[in-house]
Amino acid sequence: MKKTLFALAGMALLMGIYSFVPKADTYNVNVDKSRIDWIASKKNDFHTGAFPLKSGQVVLEGNKLKGGKFVIDLANLKVTDAAGDRLAGHLKNADFFDVAKFNEATYEITGVNYTSDNTAALTGNLVLKGASFPVNLTANIRNADDKAFFAEAFFSLDRTALGITYNGPSKDVQMAVHIFANK
């Protein structure tokens, strides 16, 4: 009888503890609104553009970002300055993104460390042209509630560290990531 009471009390205690653990929720990225903007410098000028997203999800637990994965549409990259389609075609060639072989890239968040209520240091892996590269960044969480998620990250990326070794004067590309997701 005592064993049964202890077992029931133990089960009740575990159920009580687990009832306070926040549930993880998956939000789907709004690909029409989300994108990755870039600015790349050259000797006497710069170029601007954007990569659309094909798909993605973010995982929130208790309205806090816990993870996510995104598919980046390299084949439909856009150049938004006067170089337009000519530069876009060049970027799709083998010396840059080689979209004939690799028409998409992925980024997966592997760790989230909140440094304030609305700022999180993200660790993650970018898979580009068949190779995986660690890419860490700081995300500004603009909204995370039971209906929607919006975050941005602004950072510099060394393109040569990603295997893009085109002989240009600047290795750094400025990135601005805008992620919108809904439950």
The figure for the number of domains is: 1
CATH topology category name: Lipocalin
* Assigned CATH superfamily: Lipid/polyisoprenoid-binding, YceI-like
Q: Approximately how much beta-strand content do the residues carry?
A: over 45%
Largest sheet: 11 strands, antiparallel
How confident overall, as mean pLDDT? 90
Which stretches are poorly predicted, pLDDT < 50 over at least 5 residues? none
CATH architecture classification: Beta Barrel
For the CA atoms, what is the radius of gyration? 21 Å
Account of the 3D structure:
This protein is mainly beta. It has a single domain, classed as Lipocalin (Beta Barrel), CATH 2.40.128.110. Helix content is 14%, strand content 54%. It contains two helices and eleven strands. Strands 1, 2, 3, 4, 5, 6, 7, 8, 9, 10 and 11 form an eleven-stranded antiparallel beta sheet that branches. The longest helix has 18 residues. It is elongated. Pfam families: YceI.
